[in-house]
Description:
Helices cover 34% and strands 18% of the residues.
Amino acid sequence: MNPPAMTSRNSPFRRFLFAPLLAAGLALSACGGGAPQQAQAEWPLAGATIGGDFTLVNKDGETVTWNDFKGQWRIVYFGFTFCPDVCPVDAAAIGGGLSRFEQMDPERAAQVTPIFISVDPQRDTPEVVGEFAETFHPRMVGLTGTKEQVDQAAKAFVATYNLGEPDETGYYPVDHTATTLLFDPDGQPVAILETHQGPQVLADELAKWVQ
Ligand code: NI
């Protein structure tokens, strides 16, 4: 067994991020995808059981499935737009990182689609999430859906969330995993991106993984 925690940078934060994956029974297998096996062997998440089909709604009210992104490298992040700090900072790092990667290598960067999925459909309509995502990168896709759709997607991507108690203004916080995942054009998990280290690290990581 070679758990993904064996990857090079082993910060406490990184271990924290892996905890829910491991708790959910991250299964490793020798499955193959479309990418060259040699490259795949170096992916920290190679063979991990994470990701999978979802059915959500985009800002135009259209149904969107995981398979619709086939052929694109995908960055996936679960959060909510009313988040006071972590989500906007992470979304800015993802969008900014992709913009930097576009300057480094426009051809490869054009194959990358960032996806922000809101776990708070009570407040985040598909339109709100879509507009929120686009403020961080013009190609960032914002999605949400019914609670059932969101829960199904969260389960597939090993994301968890918990709605907090409303304060006197009615605002409620949402605790959630803040893991940024990269998937290959076949939807296979590649790596957890170090979004909390800012846009340049994210750009460098995209340059490392995206072929
Ligand atoms: Ni957040």
